[in-house]
């Protein structure tokens, strides 16, 4: 993000696909899978459990095979399996799939300078 107050920080957001309502968010120093789980647990406590979650191929969400290793599971994937939430991973090189949340981040980056916090 261009705003210097966000240097070294990551905003994790869960957006309802139908309403575009932000059901959960958190600000963390790194984009670790455990932080995704933390934000999702809080969102579930407040709004209930989703049937599905759509994500990109980011390694925080989705473990990929690399360096001749088998595909493992991230903490996020393990949590979804435990909670019986289906993970839908978008197609590679198809950013339109996550267009709504991408638009949120585009607007957020333009407007963040007007606010002191994300709350």
Descriptive overview:
The chain has 119 residues and is of the alpha+beta class. The protein has a single domain (4-114), classed as Ribonuclease H-like superfamily/Ribonuclease H (Nucleotidyltransferase, domain 5). The protein is built from three helices and four strands; from the N terminus they run E-E-H-E-H-E-H. It is 31% helix and 18% strand. The longest helix has 15 residues, at 33-47. Strand 3 (52-55), helix 2 and strand 4 form a beta-alpha-beta unit. It has helices at residues 33-47, 75-83, 99-111; strands at 10-15, 22-28, 52-55, 86-89.
Secondary-structure blueprint:
Blueprint: E1 10-15, E2 22-28, H1 33-47, E3 52-55, H2 75-83, E4 86-89, H3 99-111
Parallel strand pairs: 3-4
Antiparallel strand pairs: 1-2
């Amino acid at each position: 993000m261009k705003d210097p107050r966000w240097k070294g920080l990551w905003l994790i957001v869960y957006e309802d696909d139908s309403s575009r309502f932000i059901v959960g968010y958190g600000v963390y120093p790194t984009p670790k899978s455990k932080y995704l789980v933390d934000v999702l647990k809080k969102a579930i406590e407040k709004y209930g459990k989703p049937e599905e979650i759509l994500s990109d191929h980011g390694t925080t969400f989705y473990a990929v095979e690399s360096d001749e290793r088998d595909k493992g599971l991230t903490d996020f994937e393990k949590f979804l399996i435990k909670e019986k939430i289906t993970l839908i991973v978008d197609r590679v090189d198809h950013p339109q799939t996550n267009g709504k949340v991408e638009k949120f981040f585009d607007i957020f980056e333009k407007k963040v300078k007007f606010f002191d916090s994300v709350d």
